[in-house]
Amino acid sequence: MATENLEMNGDAGRNGNAEVPLRGPWRQQQGPLNMNHYANKKSAAESMLDVALLLANASQMKAVLEQGSDFTFYVPLITLISISLILQIIVGVLLIFIVKWNLNDESMHYKLNIMENFATAFVFIIVVVNVFITAFGVQRPKLSA
């Protein structure tokens, strides 16, 4: 039973058995996990999120520039948005290299691991910077007439 795929929910426990084999053709194992395929999907998803945030930051930069230098948080927002944009570009380049290299080549694992760690650290910094961008706000409060 140790080599079978087991179902964690469903009929488990009805007959005193804690483990029940998986059923159905759609739950059968399709072979070993292709790490390159998995990494490419993961990097593609990260890239799509990066593009969405890049567009949001570009829109925020436009709004801050339109408000002009008399806006209270003009310099901090321009600085934070610029940092975010630069880091997003760096993460995008890192993700391109990560996707291009073969995960099955064990000699590349060390380099790929370092690049993944840098990408993760930069994404964390981007999130923190964008929290501050949101806290400072981009829209000027409307003055009542």
Automatic annotation (TrEMBL):
<protein>
    <recommendedName>
        <fullName>Ninjurin 1</fullName>
    </recommendedName>
</protein>
<dbReference type="GO" id="GO:0042246">
    <property type="term" value="P:tissue regeneration"/>
</dbReference>
<keyword id="KW-0472">Membrane</keyword>
<dbReference type="GO" id="GO:0007155">
    <property type="term" value="P:cell adhesion"/>
</dbReference>
<feature type="transmembrane region" description="Helical">
    <location>
        <begin position="71"/>
        <end position="98"/>
    </location>
</feature>
<dbReference type="Pfam" id="PF04923">
    <property type="entry name" value="Ninjurin"/>
</dbReference>
<dbReference type="InterPro" id="IPR007007">
    <property type="entry name" value="Ninjurin"/>
</dbReference>
<feature type="region of interest" description="Disordered">
    <location>
        <begin position="1"/>
        <end position="23"/>
    </location>
</feature>
<keyword id="KW-1133">Transmembrane helix</keyword>
<feature type="transmembrane region" description="Helical">
    <location>
        <begin position="118"/>
        <end position="138"/>
    </location>
</feature>
<comment type="similarity">
    <text>Belongs to the ninjurin family.</text>
</comment>
<keyword id="KW-0812">Transmembrane</keyword>
<keyword id="KW-0130">Cell adhesion</keyword>
<dbReference type="GO" id="GO:0016020">
    <property type="term" value="C:membrane"/>
</dbReference>
